């Protein structure tokens, strides 16, 4: 009896019968010859469809992919009509997109070819061993029984492929091109290797200097926004949950009220209130506390501090709700034993509460940290990334994600934006994997020790 894990294309080509070997050329022939005629015909139709696609567009897209087009748009004088006519040139963006799609179609065809070869050899062996070969109807029924996972996962996997993986590969490819407004490379552009990566990583260049500055502020922001919210939210939850605290529901309502208001509304209101002629500066000047407006958004250092403080007001209620239920599940015997041993509130917090909370909420902390690195709303709605110095594309409070938005939408530096996107993905992946794999939540999932 041949195990499915031992079935390879090589064994199918060498040990298969005439039908299995014929499948290497005419896909589905092995299935058809071994009794699964409907399935064999469907696989053959997929092969025919692939050939039509390649003949109609796929082969042309693959051929054009290395050059990304060479014909520029322009005007040609038509002597017969006596007018200039517009001639449409190559569109490198579409060539790149169609080329990437064609590559994925070819890879899918190769995968289908491998699967049908292995399946044909498997059926052949089942017949030789006298085992029952499922009919087409039985295969369909199995998709709603034993193979239900295939039915349920097919559509989500297809969606991930079409809407996530293909666009991601397309963006990655864009990082290796000259696709930007520099030199008007917006219609016809070419490959340029690692040039944009060198520009971004070069600390002496303008783009590189901005990248390292934005990266430094992004990490600082993520650390403050994550851990300040976490610690202060935990302390707030502990204070409210004390037995001595009266009106717990009222105090929770006061802090949760900020969640009920849409975040973008709160942030835009705060942005307006802290303008030079906003409510805060006007009130302080009328009271005689200041003579000049405080430059909340015009001074880089003050803008960063202001953003962190406002984010505390927005984020602490969320953390309070997250940890309230967990705090109530900490065994009270631990606290009683600690008090009997003479431990004070600070010792109890650092020896019991904080370790327990970190064990349970480490995945949440990682998610929150990653979310803060990509926290577009808070930065863009409060300061729009400013202040921005002359000659820079990145503001002093821009995160990588807001700078990426400006580079692509406002500045049209699509290739540099793609590089920034790749770097952000790499940084987040490393931080997430390293942190989680070294956490107690990963190493000891069974219990808190």
Question: How would you describe this protein?
Answer:
This protein is 68% helix and 2% strand. By secondary structure, it is an all-alpha fold. A hairpin with a 4-residue loop joins strand 1 and strand 2 (83-87). The chain has helices at residues 9-15, 18-22, 29-33, 37-64, 92-128, 136-142, 148-174, 195-201, 206-241, 248-260, 263-273, 279-286, 300-328, 332-340, 345-373, 376-382, 400-410, 414-437, 440-443, and strands spanning 74-78, 83-87. The chain is built from 19 helices and two strands. It has two domains: 4-142, no CATH class; 196-443, MetI-like (MetI-like fold, Orthogonal Bundle). Helix 1 (9-15) packs across helix 5 and helix 15 (345-373) packs antiparallel against helix 18 (414-437). The protein starts with 8 loop residues before the first helix and ends in a 6-residue tail after the last helix. The longest helix has 37 residues, at 92-128.
Summarize the SSE layout with pairings.
Layout: H1 9-15, H2 18-22, H3 29-33, H4 37-64, E1 74-78, E2 83-87, H5 92-128, H6 136-142, H7 148-174, H8 195-201, H9 206-241, H10 248-260, H11 263-273, H12 279-286, H13 300-328, H14 332-340, H15 345-373, H16 376-382, H17 400-410, H18 414-437, H19 440-443
Antiparallel strand pairs: 1-2
Summarize the entry for a quick read.
Helices cover 68% and strands 2% of the residues.
Provide key terms for this protein.
449 residues, mainly alpha, MetI-like fold, 2 domains, two-stranded antiparallel ribbon, 19 helices, 2% strand, flat
Tally of structural domains: 2
Radius of gyration: 31 Å
Question: Uncertain spans, ≥5 residues at pLDDT below 50?
Answer: none
* Mean pLDDT across all amino acids: 87
Sheet of most strands: 2 strands, antiparallel
Would you count the extended β strands for me? 2
How big a fraction of the residues is strand? under 5%
Structural class: mainly alpha
CATH topology of the largest domain: MetI-like fold
CATH architecture of the largest domain: Orthogonal Bundle
What's the overall geometry? flat
> What is the top-level CATH class of the largest domain?
Mainly Alpha
Major sheet strand order: 1-2
Annotated CATH homologous superfamily of the largest domain: MetI-like
Number of helices: 19
In N-to-C order, the SSE pattern is: HHHHEEHHHHHHHHHHHHHHH
Kindly report how far apart the N and C termini lie.
48 Å
Helix content class:
55-70%
């Amino acid at each position: 009896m041949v195990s499915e894990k031992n079935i390879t294309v090589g064994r199918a080509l060498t040990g298969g019968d005439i039908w299995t070997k014929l499948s290497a050329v005419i896909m589905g022939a092995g299935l058809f010859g071994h009794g699964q005629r409907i399935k064999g015909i469907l696989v053959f139709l997929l092969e025919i469809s692939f050939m039509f696609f390649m003949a109609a567009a796929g082969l042309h897209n693959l051929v054009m992919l290395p050059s990304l087009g060479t014909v520029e748009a322009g005007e040609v004088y038509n002597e017969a009509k006596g007018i200039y006519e517009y001639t449409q040139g190559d569109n490198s963006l579409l060539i790149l997109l169609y080329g990437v799609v064609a590559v994925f179609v070819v890879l899918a065809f190769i995968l289908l070819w491998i699967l049908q070869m292995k399946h044909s050899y498997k059926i052949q062996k089942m017949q030789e061993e006298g085992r029952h070969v499922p009919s087409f109807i039985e295969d369909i029924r199995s998709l709603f029984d034993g193979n239900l996972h295939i039915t349920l996962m097919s559509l989500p996997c297809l969606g991930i492929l079409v809407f996530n993986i293909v666009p991601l590969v397309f963006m990655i490819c864009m990082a290796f091109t000259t696709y930007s407004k520099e030199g008007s490379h917006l219609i016809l552009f070419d490959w340029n290797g690692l040039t944009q990566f060198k520009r971004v990583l070069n600390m002496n260049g303008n783009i590189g200097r901005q990248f390292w500055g934005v990266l430094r502020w992004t990490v600082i922001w993520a650390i403050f926004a994550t851990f300040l919210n976490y610690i202060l939210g935990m302390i707030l939850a502990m204070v409210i949950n004390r037995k001595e605290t009266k009106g717990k529901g009222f105090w929770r309502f006061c802090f949760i009220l900020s969640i009920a208001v849409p975040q973008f509304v709160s942030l835009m209101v705060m942005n307006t209130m802290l303008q030079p002629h906003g409510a805060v500066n006007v009130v302080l000047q009328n009271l005689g506390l200041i003579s000049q407006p405080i430059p909340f958004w015009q001074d880089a250092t003050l803008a960063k501090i202001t953003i962190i403080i406002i984010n505390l007001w927005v984020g602490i209620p969320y953390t309070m709700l997250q940890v309230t239920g967990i705090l109530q599940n900490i065994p009270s015997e631990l606290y009683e034993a600690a008090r009997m041993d003479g431990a004070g509130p600070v010792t109890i917090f650092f020896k019991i509460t904080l370790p327990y909370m970190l064990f349970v909420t480490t995945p949440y902390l990682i998610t929150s940290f990653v979310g803060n690195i990509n926290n577009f709303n808070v930065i863009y709605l409060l300061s729009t990334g400013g202040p921005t110095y002359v000659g820079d594309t990145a503001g002093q409070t821009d995160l990588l994600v807001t700078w990426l938005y400006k580079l692509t939408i406002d500045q049209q530096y699509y290739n540099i934006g793609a590089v920034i996107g790749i770097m952000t993905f790499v940084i987040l992946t490393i931080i997430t994997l390293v942190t989680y794999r070294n956490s107690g939540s990963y190493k000891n999932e069974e219990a808190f020790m």
